[in-house]
Specification:
CATH architecture of the largest domain: 3-Layer(aba) Sandwich
CATH class of the largest domain: Alpha Beta
Number of domains: 2
Number of helices: 8
Largest sheet: 7 strands, mixed
Distance between the termini: 35 Å
Strand content: 25-35%
Helix content: 25-40%
Number of strands: 13
């Protein structure tokens, strides 16, 4: 693992590097122009870049300040790391640097959008950082052409990160123990999706849209990119069914409060935890 640090670029020439960085991260030609990133940085937003020991940009985040219902918050538009550095905690470091920056300026909320079927980003946001899933947006961007999104409608979950809440402090410090799905089920939680495995492919055997418990588990595939490569029809089914569940649950007053990992003799499973009347502070 190499050394890196998180910085804020200021010069136009430095910002120009971030157009190439976006292409390297997301594998697409559409990049936020450097002059827009400069405006984010200088007009009330914030852009952070991770650079390695040679000064090469290897990760970035950017966004801007917005207002909703009278509350000021930071909208995080994108956060990404080059493929060969994604196991080094750089995305976490970028968001923690953002948190420090915002709190110093009196901003206590950040929001962003994520694909709920992409585990790395969702698990970092919800389990590790303590963000809460509050609303679901079907096909938010329309059909996208880049390798990350191609083949599925661009559904996005909006998450809210209350930067100085006890919940967030407990998550980022590691003080909050990760729940066990088996224990949750024994305590009365219900699981809404039954999954079968055919080889390495996870398929939905059946599912329910009835919410009877205060806590609900929703299993999702371990690797959605593999599912898309192996069977695009299975991937589309995962998108459509989880969309129905999340939309109905959030509309009925549930919040997405965790993304739990469980390991057993058959491999690794992942479950979203939806809670009603959850303590979100």
């Amino acid at each position: 693992m190499g050394e890196y640090r998180v910085v804020r670029f200021e010069s136009p020439e430095a910002f120009k590097q971030l157009e190439w960085l976006q292409m390297e991260i997301w594998g697409r030609s559409e990049a936020i122009p450097y002059h827009v990133l400069i405006a984010f940085q200088r007009m009330g937003g914030a852009v952070f870049t991770a650079i390695d020991e040679s000064g090469r940009p290897i990760g970035m985040l950017c966004g801007y300040i917005s207002v909703r219902d009278g509350e000021v918050y930071y909208y995080l538009h994108l956060c990404g790391v080059v493929p060969d550095k994604r196991a080094e905690g750089i995305a976490t470091a970028l968001k923690m640097k953002l948190r420090e920056y915002l709190l110093e300026r009196g901003v206590r909320v950040a929001r962003w959008l994520l694909d709920p079927l992409q585990i790395p980003e969702a698990r970092l946001s919800i389990r590790k950082l303590g963000a809460i899933g509050r609303s679901y947006n079907p096909n938010f961007y329309g059909n996208m052409r880049d390798p990350y999104n191609r083949g599925l409608e661009s559904d996005r979950l909006e998450v809210e990160w209350r930067l100085d809440s006890k919940r967030v402090l407990d998550r980022i410090s590691g003080a909050d123990r990760e729940p066990c799905p088996k224990e949750l089920l024994e305590e009365g939680a219900e699981s809404l999706i039954t999954v079968v495995r055919e080889g390495g492919l996870e398929k939905i055997l059946n599912y329910r849209l009835s919410f009877r418990s205060e806590k609900v588990l929703v299993e999702i595939p371990e690797n959605m990119d593999y599912v898309k490569r192996a069977s695009i029809s299975t991937a589309v089914e995962w998108r459509e069914i989880t969309r129905r569940i999340f939309e109905k649950g959030l509309a009925q007053g549930y919040f997405i409060t965790d993304l739990i990992r469980e390991k057993d003799e058959h491999g690794t499973k992942y479950y979203y935890l939806l809670e009603r009347n959850a303590d979100l502070d």
